[in-house]
Structures are given as C-alpha cells and as structure tokens.
Write a structure and sequence with these properties.
A: alpha/beta, FAD/NAD(P)-binding domain, D-Amino Acid Oxidase, Chain A, domain 2, seven-stranded mixed sheet, B: mainly alpha, Non-ribosomal Peptide Synthetase Peptidyl Carrier Protein, Chain A
Chain lengths: 417, 103
C-alpha cells in the first residue's frame, strides 16, 4: 500500500502552496484534486502580504512571466461617483509588498499545481477522497479516481478543499457564522470595461452603494471580472435569475454603469451565497485546515487567496517542525488554530467597518494626523501581523468609527445617486 | 440624415465640452485651485490624495469650497448639488477629477 508523509485534499492555492513547500523540504506528498484543470474559480485578487509564500515556494518568477495583471493598489469609490479614495501599496510598504497580481484562477491555479508537481508532489486528478479513517499513528484513506479506488496511508492530512470543507464536515467540527448576515455574490467576466490610466490600470476597484457593493478586477489587457455583493434575500428580489439581478444592480449605480458601458459579456454569470463561516478548530492530531476549508469571511478585502497561501505555508511549516510522523500536540494544534483565526479576525473587524456606513465615512476620509491612510493601506495590503504601532492605530480607527455615529469625525457620506 | 443648424451648433458645443472634460488633468485642477484659493502649499506639493480640507491637508475652508464650486461651474458646466456632496467630491484632487470625468 502506498504511504505518503502528507496527503493534501484539494489542488487550489492552499494545496499547491503547502504541497510545494513540503515536497521541497523532502516530504512525500500526494495532492488529490477533484476537478480537471483549467477550470473557472472565484477569488481573483491577491494582496501583497501573500507574496512571501509565493516567493518561498519558488513560483514568483513564473507568475511575473505569465502575464497576470500587476496590482499596485486598491481604490474605493462611491456608487454616485462623488467619493473616491485610491491607495498605492508602495506609499507605505517596502518593495517586496509594493505590488502583487490580479489572477484569473483557471490560469493561476493550474500554474501553481503544475509547480507543486514539478517540486515533487504526486498529483491525483481528477480524484476525490472516498473515505478517511484517523488512527493514532496514521490515516487510512481511499482515493477514488478514473482508475478506480486506491487505498493509501498518510502521516498527516491537510484539508485544502476550500468551501467543501472536507474535514470540518466529516468530523463535524463546530463552526460559527461569524455574526455576518447572509450575502450573495453574482459575477461574470467582461471585455473592454473601463480602465484606469497608467499604473492604476491594475488596481482593484470597489464601488460602494448605500447597501451592497461591486468589485471590478482587471485580469489582463482586455478582461475584467465584475461582481455584485449584497444581502442574499434583497439581491434575489431584484430579478428572477442571475443575469436580471446583476443588470438591475448595475443600472441602479451611476459609477458601475459608467465603468461597464461598452463592456461585452464573456461566458456565464456565476453566484456564491451564504459564504461566511469559521471552524472553531483548525487542527487536530494528524490534520490541518488551510484556506477556505478553515473558514471564509467576505470577499470585500480580497483576503481569501492570501489567507489560503499563508495558512498553506503555515500548515507545511507546522508539519516540518514535527519529529517525523509524530502526532500534533494539543499545544501545537491550538497555536495553529490561533494563527489561522488571527488572520480572519483582523479582516472580520475591517469587514464590519466596511459594511457600516458611519465607519465607512471615516474610511473614505482618512485623517493624516492619525496616520489613518497608512493604517488602512497596511490593512488593505493584508498586514495581519501587527506591531504595537499598527495595532494601536487600528484600535484608533475603530474608535473613530464608533465615535462617528455620535459626532461627525468625518463628513457624513452622501449616497444618493 | 439632415441636421438642423442649431442642432449642429449644440452638438459642436457639446463635443467641445466633452473633449474639455475628457482631458481634465491634475495640473489643470491645481491651476484652478491656485486661481481661486489662497494656497499654503506649492502646486508641485499637492499630491492626488492630499486632503483639500482640514488642518492635515491643504487647509481650505468653506469659502474656498464655494469659490471652487463656482469656478467648476464656469469652466466645466459641472454643478455640485449641495455642500455635503461638495465635501466628498472635493476630498482630494483625485476624487474631484474622477467626478468631473463622469459629468
């Protein structure tokens, strides 16, 4: 029976990152990916604090050569075109964080998985996990592929299965909905949508309505990903199918209409609903969750793929620190879970601010005496590991957002179109 | 299709105006600020994201806001509907420029 040090469920960014790093360190790795690549996937914007993992796994130069749009910052606009804030990562961060990429996932995920394979990972694709039995010394798995069912053994399993959350569901790990309301995202790709001038052409644009928001992500020279995000029930009520709802929302927004004028639809509309959750535990004695399988908050700050890469890296590191094949101690499990939760918690706080119209007013009017612009830039870039100064400023930002309700620290936003 | 003379005139005027707005540059807007306000900074020092109002920015006040609003109407025929919207549109030169490009 084949035995591997690590079996990784899922060949997306979390799986490829953890797999490549483990294989490069000499571990025997099997990645089991359910779908044939290339395939469409949502989550198309990176943020700079994911760059380290891409460099460590040795894939950065390949990304540079592959023609992905360079992302040097993010811009937030109001739907009535009357408010506009543009951030450039390089204004507050060093050269290693000055830019990252917008990624068409069909291309990105294929490139990363290929790289993991070249790094020494075995790939079973298309294939799925039929069963997994966790014992004290190892895990017995059955892999279902086109060739039939194969029994294999592993010392550790990394769950990189994304929203399918294989281990979370199988072991009925308790989870939380993070107190966020149920939202829905409807999205598609367009050709010839509006582009910013110069280096800002690669920026992600967030268009904020009084309720709901759009993203516009330039994937390459011609293609732009456009999505609408709103409360699930309210968005459903705007039309009887995805296409109707999408266009109803675009037409209700001056800024979105302006940017999509002249754009032509490529392919189909897709949707994702009710996507916020987090498992209370991200690690067990022989398993670790990486990426969406551990939890997902909200797409607004493009944290998903960055967190997938970083938790993938952390999972690999955690296994590499173990004396060979030993089970993860309770302390190690807790430490890993705390690290995973820390990343999502920072974004959860920012997300709560984004959806609050008073807090968002402070966001759109960052006072430099409080270094708010720098603070926001760092958070938007993904700096979840904060030094004392950033932690303090983040608290100040949250305090000012709270104060805004009672006393206008920043001018109240006008949303009317 | 035959166009009436005054429609032609209007269309030409509209095209001139569109061309004027499509080419609004930051330098042009800095010039507008210089002509209408007492600036405490040199134009070269005014970055796209420098707040126009408030002590930690250019330090313009509500009189300046009014001057700018009038100047924008005169030069670009672009009307800011009320003081609240003005505060937002005039947050910095970047937001002013983007707003103007869409009028």
């Amino acid at each position: 029976m084949k035995k591997f040090d690590v079996v990784i469920i899922g060949g997306g960014p979390a799986g490829s990152a953890s797999g490549a790093l483990l294989a490069q360190a000499g571990k025997s790795v099997l990645i089991v990916e359910r779908e044939k690549f290339p395939r469409f996937h949502i989550g198309e914007s990176l943020i700079p604090f994911g760059n380290e993992v891409l460099r460590d796994m040795g894939v950065w130069e390949k990304l540079e050569r592959a023609g992905f749009m360079t992302k040097k910052g993010a811009e937030f606009t109001l739907s009535n075109s009357c408010g506009f804030q543009r951030f450039w990562f390089r204004n507050n961060l060093g050269p290693e964080h000055a830019q990252t990429f917008q990624v068409e996932r069909s291309k990105f995920d294929s490139l990363l998985l290929d790289h993991a394979h070249q790094s020494g990972c075995q790939i079973s694709q298309p294939a799925s996990i039929d069963s997994a039995d966790f014992h004290e010394e190892l895990i017995d798995l059955k892999i279902q592929s086109e060739a039939g069912i194969e029994a294999i053994q592993a010392s550790y399993v990394i769950d990189a299965s994304g929203r399918d959350a294989w281990i979370g569901k199988k072991l009925s790990v308790p989870k939380s909905d993070l107190g966020l309301s149920k939202k829905m995202a409807i999205y598609a790709h367009f050709e010839n949508a509006y582009r910013n001038e110069g280096e800002a052409a690669g920026h992600i644009t967030i268009i904020r309505m009084e309720q709901g928001w759009f993203w516009m992500i330039p994937l390459d020279e011609k293609k732009t990903s456009v999505g609408i995000v709103w409360e699930q029930e309210k968005l459903k009520a705007t039309g009887s199918n995805l296409e109707e709802r999408f266009w109803a929302m675009i037409h209700s927004s001056k800024e979105a209409s302006f940017r999509l004028k002249g754009g032509t639809l490529l392919g189909d509309f897709h949707a994702t609903t009710d996507y916020s959750y987090r498992y209370h535990q991200s690690a067990g004695s022989r398993w670790l969750m990486a990426g969406d399988s551990a939890g997902f908050v909200d797409p607004i700050f493009s944290s998903g793929v960055m967190i997938a890469l970083r938790t993938g890296g952390l999972a690999a590191q955690t296994i590499l620190k173990q004396s060979p094949s030993s089970a993860l101690s309770l302390a190690t499990q807790k430490k890993y879970t705390a690290a995973v939760h820390q990343m999502t918690s920072v974004f959860l706080k920012m997300i709560e601010l984004f959806y609050d119209n008073d807090a968002f007013a402070v966001f759109m009017n960052p006072r430099s005496i409080f270094k708010l612009r720098e603070t926001i830039n760092r958070l938007v870039a993904g700096q979840t590991e904060m030094d004392w100064s950033l932690r303090w400023r983040f608290r100040l930002f949250r305090f000012l957002s709270w104060l805004q309700k009672r006393y206008p620290v920043a001018p109240r936003l006008v949303f009317s179109e | 299709m035959v166009l009436l003379k005054d429609s032609l005139d209007k269309s030409a005027a509209f095209q001139t105006l569109s061309a004027l707005m499509a080419n609004v540059s930051l330098d042009e807007l800095k010039q507008l600020l210089l002509e209408n306000c007492m600036l405490k900074l040199q134009p070269e020092e005014i970055q796209e994201d420098l707040p126009l109002f408030g002590p930690d920015g250019l330090g313009l006040d509500s009189i300046d806001a009014l001057q700018i609003t009038v100047a924008l109407e005169k030069k670009y025929k672009a009307t800011i509907p009320n003081p609240e919207v003005a505060r937002q549109v005039l947050q910095n030169l970047g937001s002013l420029r983007e707003w103007l490009l869409r009028q």
